[in-house]
Task: structure prediction
Amino acid sequence: MQRPRTPAATDEETLALWYELGRLYAESGGGGQRATKLGFAVVCAAGALVLLSAPVFGTAWAGPFAAAIPVAAGVLSGGGLFLRQRSRFRRRTDVLRRLLAERGLDANRPAREGLGTYYDAQLLLLRSEYEYLLARDATKTTRLFEESFGFTEEDPFKTGPLNVAPDTPEMRALRGRWERRICSKRQHGVEPPALGPREDLAYRIFPREMTVPVELSMRRAYLGISRRLILERYGGNPCEKPHLIPEALQSRVERDLLEYEALSIEPSRRL
Result:
């Protein structure tokens, strides 16, 4: 597995703190879904029990509240689970924030000191998101990427198709460019915007440990952005219409589409 971070590597304990914070933020989005599913299951189960109890106990025990009992049980179960999850999430993130603060780091600004905690695959995804948002004139969000990661419209980076890959001289040059811009802003007293779970759920902003599943997920995500832009620019099935694609881009278009397709195949079908 590649480890393409900057040469000025952060110590492993600090990396572990950042990656744990990123993992917690990534998992936080599923809490509401789990609570909703539990609440719905309890509503169904309680409703079935109320109906089944009628032939045995009658309906007098429930009275006019028979219809409300399953709903109340579902709300209490789902709501209770959600509150417990949020409380546990807050406690764990507070601990990580405190430990990062003890090291002089701001947990709300993961790239303030540079990009040493980010792998190339994640930076490619973030820069691809930025490129996609530029095409959508999402000025407010693109500014967040610029101020946090040093991205600019003038970067020698293209997607749809991609012109750079992880762990290459081109990627190292881009990383150095972004690092210098971050450093310059810091020297001039310009603070990046505060980031949190909401931004992370939308764009995977916080650093991730690059396990194999995470790396594959990120590769598929940035290739997916490239694919969307390719289809917008050159129409459906661009490989069947090579005359619409500039000759210099044809091999890159084909590569991105084939890699995306390969990563989209279910694991069982790859064997």
